Amino acid sequence: MKYIIIILNLISFTVFSQTDSGKADTCQYEILSEAASKNTVEFVVYENGEPLVGVNIVLLNRESDTLKGTISHVNGEAKLIIDNGMKIKDKTVRISFIGSQPCSIYLSEIIGKKVSVKLKPEKKDKDDGVKIIPVQKGK
Q1: Which secondary-structure segment (H or E) carries 109?
Q2: Each residue's pLDDT tens digit, 25-58
Q3: Is the pLDDT reported for residue 114 higher than 90?
């Protein structure tokens, strides 16, 4: 008997969106201290108390165009350097990771700070997962 393996929704793509009121979905975060420089944002990103490696952190403008980005390292830390003279009004930092709900923070709230960000796991549907279906060769 041969088997066909069907993988359903193992990889999901989440699109960043803003609510009708124009406010971004907010991250759960805490300001830890001042950053080393006033034109940087330092991040520590974790989920369930564990630091996350490879978290995408991007700076977006009002039109959701990516201006720059970085990823978190082994200890969950990342640094986003903001160019001198860049206007911070209407800029959003989007934080996303596979298997976690993406979230955003307005740059004006965290510029020049070290921030601890807690990501939430994505909600899973009952049908997500691997299903094995037996297939019989034609008679």
Answers
A1: helix 107-110
A2: 778 999 999 999 999 999 999 988 899 999 999 9
A3: yes
CA distances to 20, 22, 27, 47 from 87, in Å? 24, 19, 22, 31
Q: Report percent pLDDT > 70 for the chain.
A: 74
Encoded tokens for 24? 């971004």
Q: In Å, what is the CA distance from 35 to each residue of 43, 50, 101?
A: 9, 22, 26
Reduced DSSP (H G I as helix, E B as strand, rest coil) percent helix, strand, coil of the chain, to 5: 5, 50, 50
Under 8 Å between Cβ of 117 and 109: no
Q: What is the mean pLDDT of residues 75-102?
A: 92
- Give the Cα-Cα-Cα angle 103, 105, 111 (nearest 5 degrees): 145
3 state SS of 110? helix
- Burial class, 21, CB count within 10 angstroms (exposed 0-12 / middle 13-18 / buried 19+): exposed
- Show the tokens assigned to 107: 């740059």
Length of the chain: 139
What pTM value is reported for the model?
0.70
